[in-house]
UniProtKB/TrEMBL annotation:
One Gene Ontology term of the molecular function aspect: 4 iron, 4 sulfur cluster binding
InterPro entries assigned to the protein according to its UniProt record, in alphabetical order: 4Fe4S_Fe-S-bd, 4Fe4S_Fe_S_CS, RnfB_subfamily
Protein name as catalogued: 4Fe-4S binding protein
Gene3D superfamilies: 3.30.70.20
Keywords: 4Fe-4S, Electron transport, Iron, Iron-sulfur, Metal-binding, Transport
Region (Disordered): 34-59
Domain of life: Bacteria
Domain 4Fe-4S ferredoxin-type: 143-171, 391-420
Naturally occurring in which organism (per UniProt): Azospira restricta
């Protein structure tokens, strides 16, 4: 269950990964849509069953919930409000590492700190959001991320984020496709009357990630998905000035490559369709969402005031990340969506998992096993192992977002990244290097040895420090070690 905190005519979904929601009996919010016990015309999770004649009156200003909302909406509100009450009852507070928190004053942009590669390993790991923002509204550093007030809400930062650390208002996670043989995806700038009844409207066509385009293609089935180009993108501020290509093309290219690899014919893959409109009809800025009805607006206003006082609704986060963030397990929602959707499409087509989402890593013989690459990897795709006197580096392709930080920081430049030619076995890390261990010549502790090394990294650093402090002529005597000569490193490359 995902707790939903409703506040001032909008909502922020805080994903509580792995939490168990327990309904507190003392909460007034749980009584708004109190769950009916299983076995009396309700489902086990507390949703009201169809036809169940139950009426619950909101304690907020005497608003009768069933006079305002349909039964299906009441079900959603029931789950959300009970979850919010449970958060309050268990004293749970949103965590920057596991929850999306607002980083814009109006909550338009939300950040999952634990998924941000730049906050985990520095801006050398990723600057995709800043680079893709057409208005230059994102300030990014290793200490935090912020969004200026003039953000247009185009969502291109979220579409470019390889880990899914950003969410932008207006791009629902579970977009429902309209009826019709053709699903036309339209920008909010296009007047709704001109879009037609079978259009899926989003703030900007460039705000959908590759996983989202794959999800639309999967949901559409045999229907065609078209990206309707009204000829306005080149003049739109959301297109930016550096490039005049259609803003949807970067994400569409990835989705198209995956679908093509799975054997989808070109006519079934999402395509841009040119259907121009007069430039004079284009508004300067992206319009706001459709305002809620007066009844719903009143309900949200009352509920927002109560929720803010009861749960201490957080103010927009400045985007700062704790220094321990890198040590927490990474959260990669976009990566997971991309692989999960690709896997379902492959199973439906009777094909193997496509290779497009993956990369291949090779480690050359120059590797000295400094371990720097594994310690800096923001997603944990590179990790260290040690077993039976052998240690080395291994690679989990599922977790790799191809940030390239390992290759950039390798002191020996021994890492090479290339496109994979086939998908690796799922959830099975590939061994890249293997080094035998020998005692250190100074401290005698075992360490992964290479032909050029007789000291463990700690002793080597101490020796270098001594030379730096007392001069290069300083000699540090090494104890002799009667041991077999170090075994050379055995290097593997990820199978192609």
């Amino acid at each position: 269950m995902q707790p939903l905190l409703v506040a001032q005519e909008s909502y922020v979904a805080w994903t509580r990964r792995g939490d168990t929601i327990v309904t507190p009996s003392s909460s007034t919010y749980a009584s708004i849509f109190a769950p009916k016990p299983a076995g009396n015309g309700s489902s086990p999770d507390g949703e009201l069953a169809d036809g169940a004649a139950h009426k619950h009156t909101s304690p907020l200003s005497g608003i009768d919930s069933h006079q305002i909302f349909s039964k299906s909406f009441a079900r959603k509100m029931q789950a959300g409000l009970i979850g919010a009450a449970a958060m309050h009852a268990t004293h749970a507070t949103p965590s920057p590492a596991t929850d999306f928190l607002p980083i814009a004053a109006d909550g338009r942009v939300r950040l999952l700190h634990g998924a941000c590669l730049a906050l985990r390993s520095g801006t050398d790991a990723c600057t995709s959001c800043r680079d893709s923002c057409p208005g230059g509204c994102i300030d990014l550093s290793a200490d935090g991320i912020s969004v200026r007030a003039d953000c247009s809400g185009c969502g291109r930062c979220a579409a470019a984020c390889p880990s899914g650390a950003l969410e932008v208002k207006g791009f629902a996670a579970d977009m429902r496709l309209p009826d019709g043989n053709v699903v036309g995806v339209e920008c909010w700038k296009v007047p709704a009357a001109l879009s037609g009844p079978h259009a899926l409207r989003v703030p900007c066509l460039g705000g959908l990630s590759p996983a989202r385009w794959l999800g639309l293609a999967e949901a559409a089935g045999r229907r065609r998905v078209t990206i309707v180009d009204r000829g306005w993108c080149a003049q739109c501020a959301a297109a930016g000035t550096a490039s005049r290509e259609h803003p949807a093309l970067p994400a569409l290219a990835v989705a198209d490559a995956i679908l093509s690899e799975l054997g989808w014919p070109a006519e079934r893959r999402p395509q841009v369709q040119y259907a121009p409109l007069p430039p004079g009809l284009m508004p300067t800025t992206i319009p706001s969402e459709q305002p809620p009805s007066p009844a719903r607006r009143a309900f949200f206003r009352h509920l927002g005031a109560e929720a803010k006082s009861a749960f201490c609704e957080p103010s927009p986060s400045p985007g700062g990340a704790p220094r321990m963030l890198h040590r927490l397990p990474p959260t990669l929602p976009e990566r997971e969506r991309l692989l999960d959707t690709s896997g379902r499409l492959a199973a439906a087509a009777g094909s193997a998992m496509p290779a497009t989402p993956f990369v291949r890593i090779e480690v050359g013989s120059a590797c000295a096993h400094d371990q720097l690459c594994a310690r800096l990897c923001p997603t944990g795709a590179l990790s260290l192992y040690a077993h039976d006197g052998v240690s080395g580096l291994r690679f989990d392709a599922d977790a790799c977002t191809n940030c390239g930080l390992c290759a950039k920081r390798c002191p020996q430049q021994a890492i090479r990244i290339s496109a994979a030619t086939h998908a690796p076995p799922p959830r099975t890390p590939q061994v890249l290097t293997a080094f035998g261990e020998r005692p250190c010549a100074r401290c005698r502790n075992p360490f992964p040895a290479t032909p050029e090394r007789t000291e463990c990294p700690a002793c080597a650093r101490a020796r270098r420090l001594g030379s730096a402090l007392f001069g290069s002529g300083t000699r540090i005597a090494d104890r002799e070690v009667s041991a077999a000569p170090p075994s050379g490193g055995v290097h593997h490359e990820q199978p192609a």
